[in-house]
Structure formats: C-alpha cells, structure tokens
Write a structure and sequence with these properties.
Largest sheet: 7 strands, parallel
CATH architecture: 3-Layer(aba) Sandwich
Number of helices: 8
Low-confidence stretches: none
Distance between the termini: 39 Å
CATH topology: Rossmann fold
Strand content: 15-25%
Structural class: alpha/beta
CATH class: Alpha Beta
Shape: globular
Number of strands: 7
Strand order of the largest sheet: 3-2-1-4-5-6-7
Length: 251
C-alpha cells in the first residue's frame, strides 16, 4: 500500500478485532499511512487473510478471554516493542427483550464488550508509549433506548465510563483516550446466516431510521478512528464521537 500522508509512518498500531468490518477498514487505512500493524481476532482464517493483506502481525485471540489478551500483548511486545495507537474494536452483539435475557446471554456480551475490553486495555498500558492514543469502539446504543438491546447497551455504556476514567488516569502520560460510536453500519455482522432478501430487508429498515437516509460504511467509521488517533486530534481527549448519520442528535 502507498502512504497517503505518512502521519503514521513507523508508528506501532494495535487493532483488537482487526480481521473484519470496521477493524479491517481501519487496518487498511493505518497501513496506507505507513503504520506497523498488529491485529487480533477470533477467526483464524479471516485474521490471517487480513494480516497478509495489511502486512501485519496477526494474533488469534478472543478478547473475552483475559489470559488470551495478556498473551497477545506479550507477543506484540516481543515483535513491536511498544504501542503508539491502540484501537479496541472487538465486540459481540445480540438482541433479547428483558424477560428473555439469561445470565449466559448477558455474560457472553459483557465478557467481551466490557470486561474483556477493560482487561485488554489494562494489559496494553505497560506497552503504550507516552503521548500515544487509545480509541475504543462504542455504540450509539449506549444512549439510545432500543428495545431488545439491553445487554449490549449496558456493556457499551459501561465501556464509556471506562474510557473516561482511563483517560483521566492517563493524563500524566499524555495518552489520549477517545471513543467512536457508530450508528447503523453496513458490516458483515447483520448479514451472517441471512438470505439476500433478509439482508436487504434489514438494510432498508435500518436506513429508514437514519436521518441522513442510509447506513454508514466501515470506511466512514474507520476514518473517524484515524482522525482521533492522529496528531490532528491532539487537543481532543475523552470524547465519544457519534458517527451515526445524525441518529443521536437529529432524531
């Protein structure tokens, strides 16, 4: 890939959940800007493909497994030496109305989206270089009362609190911590196991609730991630940037 502006040349960027969707889109953009990359993901096939495409270190790791995250950081330390940018993107979703939420369903979402994300950040901190940047994928679900979304929304709301407190504690190290919260985004997540007609139906339904009239793309979210991670956002710290076509502010 050819560098666009070179703003991340020789910077070490780690993307947790970099094998598909928003994470892969961000990996491509970071690589185009000259970054040295390490990607993690649960799916070995998609991870290895993404790592090969982006000339990146690929580590099979489930963010819901704290020991796996610590092991991944040990590999990254050995290979890259340190981290300039950490993008915490891995996550899982699921819908269930309140009466149908089981402990297993709740824990499956929170183990990755909240508990796993926090302990992955904790494991990365000794490797973070002072003056670096952490960007975390949130969700507009954390502030939107969407029926059936209680487990996911609660996890992402908790992650918002994590981001603010981690950012506060890292002020002496000049490490900025920000979130990007996507609205409805056209990724593979809502397509898995669905027919073409079902996919189009969901796409049409979601597009209808976005004020701008369409779903977002992975590249649009990824560009916001690069901005927050870059020197162009050097005076931005602690924000939750809604990249949602106006869903939060205009509905």
């Amino acid at each position: 890939m050819v560098s666009i502006s070179g703003q991340f040349v020789d910077r070490c960027v780690v993307i947790l959940g970099g094998n598909a969707g928003i994470g892969l889109a961000a990996a491509r953009l970071f690589r185009a800007e000259g970054a040295k990359l390490a990607l993690t993901g649960r799916n070995a096939d998609t991870l290895h493909a993404a790592a090969a495409e982006c000339d990146a270190l690929g580590i099979v790791s489930d963010m819901g497994n704290v020991e796996a995250s610590r092991g991944a950081m040990a590999e990254i330390a050995e290979a890259l030496g340190g981290i300039d940018v950490l993008f915490v993107n891995a996550g899982v979703g699921g819908f269930a109305p309140v009466p149908d939420v089981t402990e297993e369903f709740w824990d499956g979402i929170h183990d990755v989206n909240l508990r796993g994300a926090f302990f992955a950040i904790q494991a990365a901190l000794p490797l973070m270089r002072d003056g670096g940047s952490i960007v975390i994928t949130g969700s507009i679900g954390s502030v939107s009362a969407v029926p059936g979304n209680i487990a996911y929304a609660a996890a992402k709301a908790g992650l918002r609190a994590v981001a603010r407190i981690v950012g506060k504690e890292l002020l002496p190290r000049r490490i900025r911590v920000n979130m990007v919260s996507p609205g409805p985004t056209d990724t593979e997540i809502f397509k898995r196991g669905a027919s073409a007609a079902e996919i189009e139906g969901v796409r049409s339904m979601l597009s209808g609730v976005v004020p701008i009239g369409r779903m977002g793309t992975s590249d649009e979210i990824a560009r916001a991630v690069l901005f927050l991670a870059s020197a162009e956002a050097s005076f931005i710290n602690g924000v939750d940037l809604y990249v949602d076509g106006g869903c939060v502010e205009l509905l």
